[in-house]
Fold this sequence. Notes:
By secondary structure, the chain is of the alpha+beta class. The chain folds into two domains: about 1-35; about 35-140, CATH 2.40.50.140. About 30% of the residues lie in helices and about 30% in strands. It is built from three helices and seven strands; from the N terminus they run H-E-H-E-E-E-E-E-E-H. Strand 4 and strand 5 (about 85-90) form a beta hairpin. It is elongated, with a radius of gyration of 23 Å. Keywords: Cell membrane, Cytochrome c-type biogenesis, Heme, Iron, Membrane, Metal-binding, Signal-anchor, Transmembrane, Transmembrane helix. Belongs to the CcmE/CycJ family.
Amino acid sequence: MRSLKKTRRIQVIAIAALALAGSTALIGYGLSDSIEFFRSPSQVAEAPPPPNEIFRIGGLVEPGTLVRGEGTAITFNVTDGGASIPVTYTGILPDLFGEGEGMVGTGAYVNNVFEATEILARHDETYMPKEVIEALKEQGVYQPDVTPES
């Protein structure tokens, strides 16, 4: 009788492990299209991703590169101090978007130009995304906003 119980326990554990592995594989496969990796401009310049890969790029809008085209078309360069990547975007920009300001864009790198489908800018005067701060610190460019006390 003991060996039958032991055999059943092993079978139940094996089936549970297979079910867990199968469900993990299905979840990973389902999420694979929605996972977006963050890259700094230096990382994109060093190892350009394939044109079909959707990712996020972040840094500062390089001063002097912001060009508004016809309608809602816009081009600019995003930099982290180590590299500068040209960006194109068609759409409405956030209110706080501007030269020298932090931004994060979602899109693909096609023909050496980042084609953005979404642009995010900081939401107030002092906020900058964590990923952008880390990328700027790696390049030695980050300078925190310090307001003098009165």
